[in-house]
Design a protein that fits this description.
The protein is α/β, with parallel strands linked by helices. Helix content is 43%, strand content 12%. It has helices at 11-17, 22-26, 34-49, 55-62, 71-81, 156-170, 182-185, 187-190, 213-230, 235-251, 263-267, 273-290, 302-305; strands at 117-126, 131-139, 145-151, 175-178, 200-203, 307-308. A 6-stranded mixed beta sheet has the order 5-4-1-2-3-6, sandwiched between helices. Helix 3 packs across helix 5, helix 4 packs across helix 5 and helix 9 (213-230) packs across helix 10 (235-251). It is globular. The protein starts with 10 loop residues before the first helix and ends with a strand.
Length: 309
C-alpha cells in the first residue's frame, strides 16, 4: 500500500493520501506475555463451550477469590482472538464507513447443491507454547472443507492464499460468504473475484456470528475433537494434527445433518472425483512450467513462512 521507494511521493505524503498514521507504518506488534497466552487459551475453551458468553460472564467464570481478572484485559484479549459473542445486537445494518457494502444473501436461501455457497472464517487455535490462527473455506451444502491454512498473524495474504487454493482445486461457488472482518473486506482480498465476476459476494450482518453458522460449528468440532485433547506443542505438530483431522473430517466423519454421510460423499455426488483430479493435475502442470524446482508441500517452520498448509 505504501511504496517506500516512490520517486515522486514521500512516505509522509503517501500516508496522508491513504489516511494512515505514519506511526502505524512502522509499528511492529509485540508478542503476548506467557501469562496472557495461558489466559487466551482458557478464554477460548469457555467460548467454544458457550459462545453466547460475553466478556463479563467469561471474566466471572475465570476469576477466583485469589485471582480476579480485569474485565478490560478479557475484552482486549477477546478482540485480539477475534471472538464475537453470539447474540443479536442493535443497529446491525450500519457497516463501518470504510467497508464496501455487500448484502447478506443467504437469509431464507435453500442450500441445495455443492458449490452453491462457500464461506470462510478465521479462528484462534491454542498450542502448548503460543498460539496460531486457522482459516478454512467450507462448502455449505456438504460441509466439505475445501482448503485450510494456519498462520501466526491474521494477514490478508494468508486469507488470499487459502481462498485461491480452494478456487484452483474446486472451481468457484455461486455465492461466497464471509463476516465483515478487516481481512475479508480488504480490497486486496475482494480483488480475487475480479477474474470471476459471476460469483456473488455475501457478508454477514456486522456483529452477527450466527450468520456463518456452518463454519462456526466446524471450529467447535476441530477444537473439541483434536485441539484440546492433543495439546499440540508447536506449529509443525499442529499442522500435522490438523492435516490428519481434516482428512478424517472430509472422508470419514459422518454428520447427522447429512443423514449420516461424509462431506466428501455429498460434495462429490454432484462434483465428480475426476473433475477434482483434473484440476489438481492442471495446477501441478502450471507450477512445473512456472518453477521447475521442487516444492516443499509440508514446511516445518511456521515462523519462517508465516503461514502453512
Amino acid at each position: 500500500m505504501i511504496d517506500k521507494t516512490h520517486e515522486q511521493l514521500s512516505i509522509t505524503e503517501q500516508c496522508e493520501l491513504a489516511d494512515l498514521s505514519k506511526s502505524t507504518l512502522y509499528y511492529k506488534p509485540r508478542a503476548e506475555k506467557p501469562e496472557n497466552v495461558v489466559l487466551m487459551n482458557r478464554i477460548d475453551e469457555v467460548y467454544t463451550k458457550r459462545p453466547y458468553y460475553g466478556a463479563r460472564r467469561i471474566q466471572k467464570t475465570l476469576s477466583t477469590t485469589e485471582n480476579r481478572i480485569n474485565i478490560k484485559r478479557i475484552r482486549r484479549l477477546m478482540k485480539k482472538m477475534g471472538l464475537l459473542t453470539v447474540y443479536p445486537k442493535r443497529d446491525l445494518s450500519r457497516p463501518a464507513p470504510w467497508h464496501k457494502k455487500y448484502p447478506y444473501l443467504l437469509r431464507g436461501l435453500a442450500i441445495e447443491r455443492p458449490n452453491q455457497v462457500w464461506s470462510t472464517d478465521i479462528t484462534y487455535v491454542k498450542m502448548n507454547r503460543g498460539y496460531m490462527y486457522l482459516i478454512a473455506v467450507i462448502d455449505w451444502h456438504s460441509r466439505f472443507v475445501l482448503s485450510w491454512k494456519i498462520s501466526n498473524t491474521m494477514t490478508v495474504d494468508f486469507c488470499k492464499t487459502c481462498l485461491q487454493e480452494a478456487i484452483d482445486n474446486y472451481g468457484t461457488p455461486e455465492i461466497f460468504n464471509t463476516d465483515q472482518g478487516s481481512q475479508f473486506t480488504s480490497p486486496a482480498f475482494i480483488s480475487i473475484w475480479d477474474k470471476h465476476p459471476e460469483v456473488k459476494i455475501s457478508m454477514d450482518g456486522k456483529g452477527r456470528a450466527t450468520d456463518n453458522a456452518f463454519i462456526e460449528r466446524l471450529w467447535r468440532s476441530v477444537k473439541q475433537e483434536t485441539i484440546y485433547p492433543n495439546d499440540y506443542q508447536d506449529g509443525a505438530s499442529l499442522w500435522v494434527g490438523l492435516h490428519d483431522y481434516f482428512t478424517y473430517y472430509n472422508n470419514e466423519r459422518i454428520h447427522q445433518g447429512l443423514k449420516y454421510k461424509t462431506p466428501r460423499s455429498i460434495y462429490h455426488s454432484a462434483y465428480t472425483e475426476s473433475e477434482v483430479v483434473n484440476r489438481k493435475e492442471e495446477k501441478e502442470l502450471l507450477l512445473e512450467n512456472d518453477n521447475p524446482k521442487s516444492i516443499d508441500l509440508c514446511p516445518t517452520s511456521v515462523q519462517s513462512l508465516g503461514y502453512i498448509t
